[in-house]
Specification:
181 residues, mainly alpha, 6 helices, binds cytidine-5'-triphosphate, binds magnesium ion
Length: 181
């Protein structure tokens, strides 16, 4: 697989993990996951992690995986890059893991005294990637190992922060997000 193929597989395989956080920004709001609970004087997660955003993001990622499965035979025939299809276990675990990674980062931010929306460089850009990859590895190890070869993993880790900074910058400029990170 050449560089183009590696990058294409990395982006394609991670799309169901990229989209949930962006959808959460759009549909989020309402009741927070932590129900307003605090721990040691600080919010457990904070008001930025809501039921609507989390479930909306998860479902959007699953729907996208189903859509990509429909496109996969055509895209693969046209490009011949070996783009993967998403078995149900991958379609469910990638977006759920992405949301969970972002939630876990919120938990860490609150423990370290950061207010809602405060940036935490590197963690902000990679929390959802680590969450998605770990979830897929646990739920569907065979698919994970076949899809995320070492080269594809490197491409994911290098490309994701770039894509994340770009999409969040756009979301900030068009007024969807309060901060550009
Ligand atoms: N959002 C949501 N539910 C999630 C994740 C995000 O509703 N599980 C929505 C919230 O409206 C949130 C916005 O998307 O304010 C931006 O997400 P993010 O930057 O991840 O949250 P922050 O508000 O910055 O909160 P935190 O400091 O806890 O990361
Ligand atoms: Mg934020």
């Amino acid at each position: 697989m050449g560089l183009l193929g590696t990058v294409a597989v990395a982006v394609w395989a991670m799309l169901p993990a990229y989209v949930p956080n962006n959808v959460a920004v759009v549909v989020g709001g309402g009741a927070p996951l932590d129900g307003g609970r605090t721990w040691r004087g600080r919010r457990l997660l904070g008001g930025g992690k809501t039921w609507r955003g989390t479930l909306g993001g998860w479902f959007a990622g699953m729907i996208l995986a189903v859509l990509l499965n429909v496109l996969q035979p055509i895209a693969d025939q046209l490009l011949g890059l070996g783009l993967p299809a998403f078995p149900p276990a991958a379609a469910v675990s990638l977006p759920l893991g992405a949301m969970f990674g972002d939630i876990a980062a919120s938990f860490l931010k609150r423990r370290s005294g950061r207010a809602r929306g405060a940036p935490l460089p590197v963690v902000d850009q990679l929390d959802f990637v680590v969450g998605a990859l770990v979830a897929a590895l646990i739920v569907t190890p065979g698919w994970f190992i076949a899809t995320f070869t070492p080269a594809v993993l490197v491409a994911v880790v290098v490309l994701t922060p770039v894509l994340h900074v770009a999409t969040n910058g756009i979301a900030y400029v068009v007024g969807l997000k309060d901060e550009p990170w």
